[in-house]
Amino acid sequence: IHTERVIEPSSSKGAALLEGWKLLFQNPSLRTVTCMDLIETFAGTIWIGAITMAYVTTVLHKGEEWWGYINTSYYVGTLIGGILAWKMSTYIQNNLIRSMALGSLMFSILTF
């Protein structure tokens, strides 16, 4: 995303976070992509919860506690993945196409 103004490096993490939020609300394209990503994430998590419940009850013949175990594992994995992406953000930023391709490949493999 290209901006017309030069952003000075922030003196603190809080200032950098605030600059990011300002950029998000000032740039319509970035805001649109972010909203699309949020909607996709919410829909995906709701969908996976419903499908998992049906799988647990009809295929595994287990109760709601197993649904909770599986959902907990899913969300813990999501948090760990987010932390890893955050830690690897410099590499990801410098290798966007490779990172996107690898992410898509890993997602498709782990889905099955």
Automatic annotation (TrEMBL):
One of its GO terms (cellular component) is plasma membrane. The keyword Membrane applies. It is a multi-pass membrane protein. The chain crosses the membrane at residues 38-60, 66-86. The keyword Membrane applies. Signal peptide: none annotated. SUPFAM superfamilies: MFS general substrate transporter. It comes from the Bacteria. InterPro entries: MFS_trans_sf (IPR036259). Keywords: Cell membrane, Membrane, Transmembrane, Transmembrane helix. It is found in: Cell membrane. Its main location: membrane. This is MFS transporter. It comes from Bacillus wiedmannii. The lineage of its organism: Bacteria, Bacillati, Bacillota, Bacilli, Bacillales.
